[in-house]
Amino acid sequence: MQIATPYLMFLGDVPDTLAAKTAYGIVDWRPEWCVGQLRMPGCAADLGIPDLTLPQAVERGCRTLVVGVVNAGGVLPDHWIAEIVAALEAGLDVASGLHVALSSVEPIAKAAAANGRALHDVRLSAERFPTGKGTRRPGRRLLTVGTDCSVGKKYTVLALERAMRERGLDADFRATGQTGVFISGKGVAIDAVVADFISGAVESISPAADPGHWDLIEGQGSLFHPSFAGVSLGLLHGAQPDAFVVCHEPTRTRMRGVEHPLPTIREVIDLTVRLGRLTNPGIRAVGIAVNTQALEEDEARKLLSALADEHGLPATDPVRFGVDEIVERLTAEYPEPRP
């Protein structure tokens, strides 16, 4: 899938910033591709880039309208259809990470055909995957896991990739969600894969590699989340991680979208190790990544210090304070293999 850049980010009328996390992720990691945003009345998200009309976007060279939102069920609201049709008529392609295929919406399909425009459904892969085998394969792998959804698993692996490459380490980000696919240009939206093939899909995107190579695999959901634990478990088994980082948002008491209480970091570490040993007996935690955006800096540093002491692991906010301590832990525990 080749999506034409630059992008016009479409936010619709989403009710909060988390609902636009796809768009925020693309802007954070590929800002040079994001020329402007298109928002409808009532939109509560703002990417901090120019608000553009469709004619302005075309004039500035935009080539694709990216539906940069997520919602329960991955549905496309009916009142967004007219805006998407207008974008196609203005000469833009459209790319979406929703579960609903753009081509399945009749007005959108007709407008794309009539105007010779491309529709990209990033979440819907035409590729067929084998079932997972759980056979050990060369190379090293790190997976991010979470106490909940939307706690920074993608940002953590992207920060690790950047920091590890700066140190000359051989490391690649492996995308397992629609935002990651937009950022990396490849990968698979794992939550759209039929359940029997989730672990096989992850094995496919992280195949055998050189002994010193690190695949940094984007985690999804949480093993404790009643809605998404099935995806998280298949991802864990397919990733066969040597190492994992626990991602956490400290102000939450309940998991997003449900009434279940948030698990502790210790509970996540223990369950990840117990379940992960099925495909990698040597799995271990190497760090804690905390989204401290809602905390003042002094409060954030005190929390991170306390978590590091409690768990005996480096604890950091990857966006705010970087991931050097986690990289140092990795290089100490997994030294470069000898030729």
TrEMBL record:
It comes from the Bacteria. Pfam families: DUF1611 (PF07755), DUF1611_N (PF17396). The lineage of its organism: Bacteria, Pseudomonadati, Pseudomonadota, Alphaproteobacteria, Hyphomicrobiales. This is EBNA-1 nuclear protein. Residues 42-123 form the D-glutamate N-acetyltransferase-like N-terminal domain. InterPro entries: DgcN-like, DgcN-like_C, DgcN-like_N, P-loop_NTPase. Residues 131-327 form the D-glutamate N-acetyltransferase-like C-terminal domain.
